[in-house]
Amino acid sequence: MTDAVAAIPEETAPVPLLEPREGLPPVVADEEALAATVAAFAGGSGPVAVDAERASGYRYGQRAYLIQLRRAGAGTALIDPIACPDLSALGAALADTEWVVHAATQDLPCLAEVGMRPQRLFDTELAGRLAGFPRVGLGPMTENVLGLSLAKEHSAVDWSTRPLPEPWLRYAALDVEVLVELRDALEQELEGQGKLGWALEEFAALAAAPLPTPRVDPWRRTSQLHKVRRRRQLAAVRELWQTRDRIARERDVSPGRVLPDAAIVNAALAMPLNAPALVAVSGFGPRVNRRQLDQWLAAVQRARELPESQLPPASAPHDGPPPPRAWAEKDPVAAARLSAARAAVSALAEEKNLPAENLITPDLVRRVSWEPPVQADAANVGAVLRRLGARQWQTDLVAPVVAAAFTKGSESEPESQS
């Protein structure tokens, strides 16, 4: 932390936050209770704190299993989105209200699934990053900024459990208890650092961003995939991944609970021909029943029988520059530009006391370094960054230092190639 961040002094012990101020509200689980909640929050005042609990690691997908809200004049509400799957009326009631969320990119997709999308928001996690806090989880932020400690022992529980235990509900209610106060303190801190305008641009971009679309070739995100080099083995990974995904979706369980990524990779490397050979692969074993073994073997067999023309390419198709590790061979000049630009961005991020990836995304630095404008001055570099999606505040800060780095790199180019 720098002196500019108004954190609670380290010698001051945080005060535990143990109970919601107005007590634990009942869970909203029917249309009558939902209608009363909509009316109460429509009649509230000021920003609304919003949070969602998912069952990551337990259930298939990222749907919300509990939604928490708090607003002045309305108190706290805990809503069961399984019992009340259409919250569009609540979303409409809060349409003109600023939402206060922590790590918005995690919660906005599952909130949109039930009909809730903000037009304005304040992301306390992102605000913490921009303000230079080294730890930006909700617990550390609440401690450092407000001097209050939140218990986090229920953060990774199975929120699809019904009925939800009271200690879990209390934990969930406390997550929105002081979120608006945290927002106000961070707004003041950002304003004092001259960064509030940056944050407002970021928040507006978050609110306006389209919902994420399904990934192309999601099986390529299998952990340890780098061990698989042959295209037919990659096809086995793809077939096993797709089989696992179908089973997980049908059973509504996390794919990792059906079969670990490591087992998929091990089977693809081994390409077993029969059940005993598959059982011998790490990650499979005697506990895997015969029906499941047959499904995994069938997946491997499909990969084995694919014609060459249908095997997946060795690397994922992409529309941007090649991986940076290949630049030195493909284009040494571009590699030098990238190295200089990265160093310049890192130095600027340190000077401004924020993470380099929040100052400018690494992908944009790579793209402008691979294909810089013909006249790589600050104005033209800035125009490229804006076209690629950088915010105005990012462009204003980054374009001059990247342009200067490109100029410095080009001046030293003959010497570096001699």
Reconstruct the topology from this structure.
Layout: E1 15-17, E2 27-28, H1 31-42, E3 45-54, E4 64-72, E5 75-79, H2 88-93, E6 98-101, H3 104-113, E7 120-123, H4 124-131, H5 138-146, E8 148-150, H6 166-175, H7 179-193, H8 196-208, H9 231-251, H10 255-258, H11 261-270, H12 275-279, H13 290-305, H14 327-330, H15 332-352, H16 356-359, H17 362-370, H18 378-388, H19 392-411, H20 413-417
Parallel strand pairs: 1-8, 2-5, 3-6, 6-7
Antiparallel strand pairs: 3-4, 4-5
InterPro entries: 3'-5'_exonuclease_dom (IPR002562), Exo_C (IPR041605), HRDC-like_sf (IPR010997), HRDC_dom (IPR002121), HRDC_dom_sf (IPR044876), RNase_D-like (IPR051086), RNaseH-like_sf (IPR012337), RNaseH_sf (IPR036397)
Pfam family, one: DNA_pol_A_exo1
Region (Disordered): 308-327
In short:
It contains 20 helices and 8 strands. The protein has 418 residues and is of the alpha/beta class. The protein is flat and about 65 Å long.
Question: Could you explain the architecture of this structure?
Answer:
This protein has 418 residues and is an alpha/beta fold. Helix content is 51%, strand content 10%. The strands form two sheets. It has a six-stranded mixed beta sheet with strand order 2-5-4-3-6-7, with helices on both faces. It has 20 helices and eight strands. It folds into three domains: 15-208, Ribonuclease H-like superfamily/Ribonuclease H (Nucleotidyltransferase, domain 5), CATH 3.30.420.10; 218-310, Orthogonal Bundle (DNA polymerase, domain 1), CATH 1.10.150.80; 324-417, DNA polymerase, domain 1 (Orthogonal Bundle), CATH 1.10.150.80. Helix 9 (231-251) packs antiparallel against helix 11 and helix 18 (378-388) packs across helix 19 (392-411). A hairpin with a 2-residue loop joins strand 4 (64-72) and strand 5. Mean pLDDT is 93; it is low at 414-418.
